[in-house]
Every structure is written in structure tokens, then in C-alpha cells.
From TrEMBL:
The keyword Oxidoreductase does not apply. Belongs to the Orn/Lys/Arg decarboxylase class-II family. LysA subfamily. The modification N6-(pyridoxal phosphate)lysine is found at residue 75. Its EC number is 4.1.1.20. The active site is at 382 (proton donor). This is Diaminopimelate decarboxylase. Signal peptide: none annotated. Residues 54-312 form the Orn/DAP/Arg decarboxylase 2 N-terminal domain.
Length: 454
């Protein structure tokens, strides 16, 4: 048995007969008993990643004399089981909808350990958040300050809130850019119009004027799949600047800063993920530098929170498909590309079509000595953009019936899945210690028809 390297989950092994097991469970047996496609989650891997973020940030914060809370960003993939793994590892849960919030509550996550995001929170979302006493609502606009304060007053509670700001730093992939102005829907800009207060400062002042609101902190989330931690530092400094401006204006020292998620992972062999220790050091040293530059030398640093999603659950998951039609196609340059069709596609992984995202795939039911050929893994949907893996080398004898696994689909796979073509969504199976545990049931055509009112 040999361990499989990045980007495969921690417990992925290729056995002597060439087939693959994860969490001690043979993928061939998993497919035979439950069918494909199916998302397979390596519980140990997900928990290790959760711990790595908690430990890295706790250590960096302790060294700087402050503390951290790590929120798992549920939108990457949330189920009752996953929420329980995360809280067992000392993480809290971030939600962004009624469904995510209800799932976290169903998993018995302590309400004070739950956050609620959203640029357009509904009345039922705000109501459930306030009634169940969740730890924080992250306010995203000036109208929302009023909406949440009014709802809190009507319920006779005090709402713990953060104000989400946009720092002008947009990060993703290898780059970040810093711009003075924002043209996107999230948060409140830190950029002040000529001589005036920034929308972010105006919102903070509005929060402080409402006794029904308790200002916990300031929030910034700069992007996703970030591999260069420098952007986090720039954002940290910008938010520290707002905190200082609030203190000058009102005497209130905002206790906490949340610097969001977006920690990048390796999708392909040879890619280097963002290291949690490096990200932690960059963020915390930027906070300390900013405090020094702002003349806050002796004051304690604010408490920190972060919200990793993809980097905790993404690499822990793979999608298991069965190969169907295999078709060699002549390309424009006169070479051949082999189109390998699988029994899922853009309905279970929209990211290649949505973002041009790249993935890695291997045959996991056997080994092969056939020379590799250039392949494109495609789905079964009625769209030529229904591509799962753009370009991957697979053994030339790839054939119908082979099991194919696509790596790093634990985040934004099932959570973004659709039922396009009325294809039911795959289930999710957790594997650990040789045991396979279904944690989300496979959808059936009967499930889809149950919604059809005839
Ligand atoms: C999406 C999101 C996250 C998580 O992002 P990842 O890239 O999955 O780490 C965290 N916080 C907020 C506010 C988000 O929108």
C-alpha cells in the first residue's frame, strides 16, 4: 500500500492490486454497495485540517498576547455530521442562510458559537438568529443596521453584531490587488468620500447609536483560493485603521477583528497550498505592525477570528464516478483528445464551468501499464461546457466501468450542486477507520418528483 500524494486526502492509499482506499474503505466496495456518483469525505483529513488552522492561529495569537476563534465557513459544505466534527475540533460555525443556520442548530452547535452572514438577510433568518441567541450577526449594509436593531427591539433582546467592511483588497489565486473603490455587493467601503466619513465608519456609528445592538467587531473577507498571504496583511492594516478611527471619534475600542476565510488549497499535483502557520503569522504580525504604526503600542491587540471553508473541507473530499462512453476526438491541431464521460458532471461540480477551475483525476479501481493519453473528463449533461476535468493524463486503456475519482471536491461541490437535467444529487459518505458512513442521502428521482405538483 502506498500513500497517495497531494492533492489526494490524507488517508488515500493505493493497494497492491492497484485499487484505492480512503479511510480504510475500498472505493470499489463503496461504489458496488452505494452506487456512483458519490462524494467521499475523509473524516480524519477534515478534522486534521480544522485542528491545523485552530493550532496555527492560536499559537500566533498567543505569541502576540491575544486570542482567536476559528469559524468553519459552512457554505463550503455543511451537514449535521460535519458541523459536529468541526465543533469537536474546537471550531465554531459560520452560516449564511436559513438552511445553514438551521443545520448548525440541528447539530446542537451552541448558538453562541454560530455566526450569520449575508448581504440580504431575510426576516426569517434574522428572527431565527435572534430567537436562538446566536453569537453574532455580521451586518452588511446601513439598512441592515436598522433592520436588525428593530427586530432585536421587537424581541426584547440585544443583538451581537459585527460590521463587514470592504478594504479594497481583492485576493484570489496568486495575486491580490488593492483598489480605493469597490464595485461589488458585499460590505461597507472603507474609502471616504472627499472630507467625509467612509460608509463603514457611518455604519459603525449607527450601530453604536442603537442600544439594541452590541458592537462585537469589524469583519473583512477579501476573497477565496488565496495562495499569497500578503493580501491578508494589507486587509488587517486597513481594518485596524478603521478601529482607530472609531476609537478617536467615540472612545470605543472595538474588541474583535474577523479577517475572513479564503485560504488556498492545492487542486493539482505539484501545487503548493497556503500554509496555515504562514497565514497566521502574516495576519497577526500585520495587526501588531498596524497597532504600532497607529501609536497603540501598549494597548492589547484585538481578539481575532477567521473563517476557513475550502481549506478545511475541500482536500478531504473526492468525487467517485463510473466511466461510461470513451470517445477519441480529433482536435484542431490534428492531435487526439480522449473524451471520458462520467455518470455525473456540472450538476455535482459546477466550478469548472463557473470559474474555469482545474481538477485532477485518476482511475481508482485498478492500475494500468498502458501509456497515458490526453483526456478530458466530461459529464452527462446537455451542454458542451459540461466539463469535470479539462485536461488530464489517464491510461490509454481507460474504459467503461472503470471508477474515476476527482480530487479536492469536498468544498463547493455538493454545496453548489444542482439537479440540472433532473439528475438527482449524489450523496455524501464519510470514511474513517475502515467504516463508511452515509452523512447525506443520495437524492432519488422520486425526491425530485415529490416537488412536482403535476
Ligand atoms: C466564502 C466565505 C468564507 C470562506 O471562504 P473559503 O474560501 O471557503 O475559505 C469565509 N467568510 C465569508 C464571509 C465568506 O463569504
Amino acid at each position: 500500500m502506498t500513500a497517495m500524494p497531494t492533492p489526494w486526502p490524507a488517508t488515500a492509499r493505493r493497494t497492491s492490486d492497484g485499487s484505492v482506499e480512503i479511510g480504510g474503505v475500498a472505493l470499489t466496495e463503496l461504489a458496488a454497495s452505494g452506487g456512483t456518483p458519490v462524494y467521499v469525505l475523509d473524516e480524519l483529513d477534515a478534522r486534521e485540517r480544522a485542528r491545523a488552522y485552530r493550532d496555527a492561529f492560536a499559537a500566533a495569537c498567543a505569541e502576540a498576547g491575544t486570542e482567536v476563534d476559528v469559524y468553519y465557513a459552512g457554505k463550503a459544505f455543511l451537514s449535521v455530521a460535519v458541523a459536529r466534527w468541526m465543533t469537536a475540533e474546537g471550531l465554531r460555525i459560520d452560516t449564511a442562510s436559513l438552511g445553514e443556520l438551521t443545520t448548525a442548530l440541528r447539530a446542537d452547535v451552541a448558538p453562541r458559537d454560530i455566526g450569520l452572514h449575508g448581504n440580504n438577510k431575510s426576516e426569517p433568518e434574522i428572527d431565527l438568529a435572534l430567537r436562538s441567541g446566536i453569537g453574532r450577526l455580521v451586518l452588511d449594509s446601513l439598512p441592515e443596521v436598522t433592520r436588525v436593531a428593530d427586530a432585536a427591539r421587537a424581541l426584547g433582546v440585544r443583538a451581537p453584531v459585527m460590521v463587514r467592511v470592504t478594504t479594497g483588497v481583492h485576493a484570489g489565486g496568486h495575486e491580490y490587488i488593492s483598489t480605493a473603490h469597490e464595485d461589488q455587493k458585499f460590505g461597507l467601503s472603507l474609502a471616504a468620500p472627499d472630507g467625509g466619513d467612509s460608509p463603514a465608519l457611518v455604519a459603525v456609528l449607527a450601530v453604536l447609536e442603537r442600544p439594541e445592538l452590541e458592537l462585537l467587531g469589524l469583519h473583512s473577507h477579501i476573497g477565496s483560493q488565496i495562495l499569497d498571504p500578503a493580501g491578508f496583511g494589507v486587509a488587517a492594516r486597513a481594518v485596524m485603521g478603521l478601529r482607530a478611527a472609531v476609537a478617536r471619534r467615540t472612545g470605543v475600542l472595538v474588541p474583535e477583528l474577523d479577517l475572513g476565510g479564503g485560504f488556498g488549497v492545492a487542486y493539482l499535483p505539484g501545487e503548493v497550498p497556503l500554509d496555515p502557520d504562514r497565514a497566521a503569522k502574516e495576519m497577526v504580525s500585520a495587526l501588531a505592525d498596524a497597532a504600532r504604526e497607529l501609536g497603540e503600542g501598549d494597548a492589547p491587540l484585538p481578539r481575532l477570528s477567521i473563517e476557513p471553508g475550502r481549506s478545511v473541507i475541500g482536500p478531504a473530499g473526492v468525487t467517485l464516478y463510473t466511466v461510461g462512453t470513451v470517445k477519441p476526438v480529433r482536435t484542431e491541431d490534428g492531435s487526439t483528445r480522449t473524451y471520458v464521460s462520467v455518470d455525473g458532471g456540472m450538476s455535482d461540480n459546477i466550478r469548472p464551468a463557473l470559474y474555469g477551475a482545474s481538477y485532477h483525476a485518476e482511475i481508482v479501481s485498478r492500475s494500468s501499464t498502458a501509456p497515458a493519453v490526453r483526456c478530458r473528463v466530461v459529464g452527462k449533461h446537455c451542454e458542451s461546457g459540461d466539463i469535470v476535468v479539462h485536461d488530464v493524463a489517464l491510461p490509454g486503456d481507460v474504459a467503461a466501468g472503470d471508477l474515476l475519482a476527482v480530487a479536492v471536491t469536498g468544498a463547493y461541490g455538493r454545496s453548489m450542486a444542482s439537479t440540472y437535467n433532473l439528475v438527482p444529487r449524489p450523496g455524501v459518505v464519510a470514511v474513517a477507520g475502515g467504516v463508511a458512513t452515509p452523512i447525506v442521502r443520495r437524492e432519488s428521482v422520486a425526491d425530485l418528483l415529490a416537488l412536482d405538483l403535476g
